[in-house]
Amino acid sequence: AFKAKVADICEVYEHAIERASHGELTFSVDEMTGIQALERTMPDIPMKPGRCMRVEFEYSRHGTQALIASFNVATGRIDQANVGDTRTEKDLDTHLRALLTHYPDALKVHLVMDCLNTHQSEAMVRLVAEREPGPIELGEKGKSGILQSMATRREFLTTESHRLVVHFTPKHCSWLNQIEIWFSILVRKLLRRSNFTSQADLKAKILDFVDYFNRTMAKPFKWTYKGKPL
Fold it and tell me: I need a labelling partner for 143 at 20 to 30 A (CA). Which of 46, 48, 154, 169 fits?
């Protein structure tokens, strides 16, 4: 199962740009939770010849925020980012619906996601079903039909013939999700050394960084992993 899932995701990445030229979109989606709004108690000491910048180790903590982001594999841009207090099933549903409104004419959408339970939820199933040309009988959650269990929902979400297809990474393999590379950029460029006076300040600076990244740094990642040892 691991080899099949890896091969599927690598194939999605490999042909993302080609598919985009034909109206098919590919997004890498995930959440970054527990982002702390830390304010240093003293200002940084700037670098000078022979000494690197020094950062105060004591801080005031102003709470946390959760980021949900969708990385466009073909363009390298963050096409949708939402920052809030939670990352629930409803939050993800709101995020994905906002993302899809940017592309109302897309012939098909591929989503690469890890196997978190909110990624295999009733809301995800209903979102996929709504994009199909005809009505689909979904059943009742926990009792019958497609919504009966996480396994039945996962099977429905990964059906290749649908207009919206989810490609799940294997367990403990979220590193296969390209959005994780972008999260590491966010940490290095913004979160690690910045000061945040409040949760609102943290949210504003994250969204500002998304805009800055899209304007100046965005480009597709060169994916070299093919499912075999490098």
Answer: 169
